[in-house]
Amino acid sequence: MDFKRFGQAYVLRLEQGEEIVAALRRFCQEQGIAGGWVMGIGTVRQATLSYYVLAEGTYRHVELTGDHEITSLVGNISVMEGEVFPHLHATLSDAGFNLHGGHLSAGVISATGELVVTPFGETLDRRLFPESGMRLLAFDR
């Protein structure tokens, strides 16, 4: 990974073989980012997309292999159970221009990943909400 800071934002270039979620988590830990916004584009050779089924309280996963374009990657950075948590959603396009989208649980870069991380300057907390069974953003006022 390489990066450069532009004002308050960071532009990251992920290299071939890097796993997006792990690289982003490591970067935020090293830079002290505990709350922020993420967006990006690039390519992956493997990805795991997930979809939360509220009635079951579980995620369904699909594994994608082969080159896919990241047509959109958006999400946020928060802290969950004391650890930096990148919460990312992605839309991926295959060679037939078919789209696949959902929560990005994992993605391995095939050519490059270009991400922008914009820190909030504050910690964004996430905790378990029993009603949904999900770990949601929590605002203590």
Furnish the topology, listing elements before pairings.
Layout lengths: L1 E5 L2 E6 L5 H12 L4 E18 L4 E23 L2 E11 L5 E21 L5 E5 L4 E5 L3
Parallel strand pairs: 4-7
Antiparallel strand pairs: 1-2, 2-6, 3-4, 3-6, 4-5, 5-6, 7-8
Roughly how much helix do the residues carry, as a percent range? Answer: under 10%
Radius of gyration: 15 Å
Query: CATH homologous superfamily name?
Result: Hypothetical protein, similar to alpha- acetolactate decarboxylase, domain 2
Tell me the number of structural domains: 1
E-strand count: 8
Total helices: the number is 1
Rough outline: flat
Give the C-level CATH assignment.
Alpha Beta
The appropriate CATH architecture is 2-Layer Sandwich
Derived from helix and strand composition plus strand pairing, the structural class reads: mainly beta
Q: Low-confidence segments, ≥5 residues, pLDDT <50?
A: none
- Beta fraction: over 45%
What is the terminal separation in angstroms? 37 Å
What letter string, H or E per element, gives the SSE order?
A: EEHEEEEEE
The CATH topology label is 60s Ribosomal Protein L30, Chain: A
